[in-house]
Amino acid sequence: MGTKTALITGANSGLGLATAKALAQRSFDLILLCRTEQKGRAAQAEVQKANPAVTVNFFTADLADLDSVRRAAGLINTQSPKLDVLINNAGYTPARLEFVNDIEKSFYASHIGHFVLTHLLLDLLKRAGADANGPARVISLSSGAYLGGRTSRFFRRIDDLSLTFAYCDDKLANLLFARELARRTAGQGVVSYSVHPGAVRTGWGTDTPGIIGSVLSLARPFMRTPEKGAQTSVFLASAPLKSIGERNNGGYFSDSVPKNTYNPDITDEKAAWLWEKTLPFV
Ligand SMILES: NC(=O)c1ccc[n+]([C@@H]2O[C@H](COP(=O)([O-])OP(=O)(O)OC[C@H]3O[C@@H](n4cnc5c(N)ncnc54)[C@H](OP(=O)(O)O)[C@@H]3O)[C@@H](O)[C@H]2O)c1
């Protein structure tokens, strides 16, 4: 049994799996949230191999299906006494435009699914934050692609939306959510960060069509390994708060250091607007 518990979404491949293994090696118990039973079971076996001494559980949910997210959160709440770290990692570049309730599906999964999950686990996180280990941590995988995101496109059905901008919007939403979560939970035993992992050789982008897809396949051999890409998430999950910097709560990190952000839509007002607009989905 480990000393702390971390939950990771999209834990069956790429960065999620590498992060889970690295945290297991640091004596974290792990809860893996995966889309299917088969993927969950395979990931559980692989993470357990990284450290047989910790407890590794898995739950299934599709983040684009909020009923499945609520079911998984209900089970996690009844089976886990507390949660020290939540890593909202799952995400993808859409290969085609699909809509759920008139909202682009990758935004639905990546932002709304994680927003609902985080809300439903907030009491577990606050409980962990009240003990001697210090505040619980919520880490949201964003990307440098946040630069191309625009809040004016959020929650709107745009039938000719470029797939690249769809992904940029997801990553801007992840960054704004992390920032607003930090503000709303300040002093309540929870801290929150967003992460750019670098360009990492994972399943990410393998479905991307067109010129961007071709550029990504050419660039793949030069990308970081998942282990290297996972380092910032692992740092934020496990480093003493002093090394992260208390004033960096809500910040955007890459290579384990806080980075400035450059997008006119990153403001307190827009972050608060996104929060209020997403709250009815919980
Ligand atoms: N790789 C990079 O260069 C890079 C750069 C910047 C940011 N990121 C971010 O890093 C995160 C992890 O990506 P990765 O590179 O590790 O890609 P990956 O290998 O494709 O892993 C993505 C994970 O997300 C899961 N997922 C996707 N949609 C889901 C849904 N609706 N419900 C539940 N799980 C879902 C996938 O599950 P399935 O196996 O079931 O599809 C998979 O486990 C993403 O948020 C991505 O945007 C990656």
Question: Features of this protein?
Answer:
282 residues, alpha/beta, Rossmann fold, eight-stranded mixed sheet, two-stranded antiparallel ribbon, 10 helices, 10 strands, 44% helix, binds NADP nicotinamide-adenine-dinucleotide phosphate
Explain what this protein looks like in three dimensions.
- The chain has 282 residues and is an alpha/beta fold.
- It has one domain: Rossmann fold, CATH 3.40.50.
- The protein has ten helices and ten strands.
- An eight-stranded mixed beta sheet has the order 3-2-1-4-7-8-9-10, sandwiched between helices. Strands 5-6 form a two-stranded antiparallel ribbon.
- The longest helix is centred in the middle third of the chain and has 25 residues.
- The radius of gyration is 17 Å and the shape is globular.
- The two termini are 32 Å apart.
- It binds NADP nicotinamide-adenine-dinucleotide phosphate.
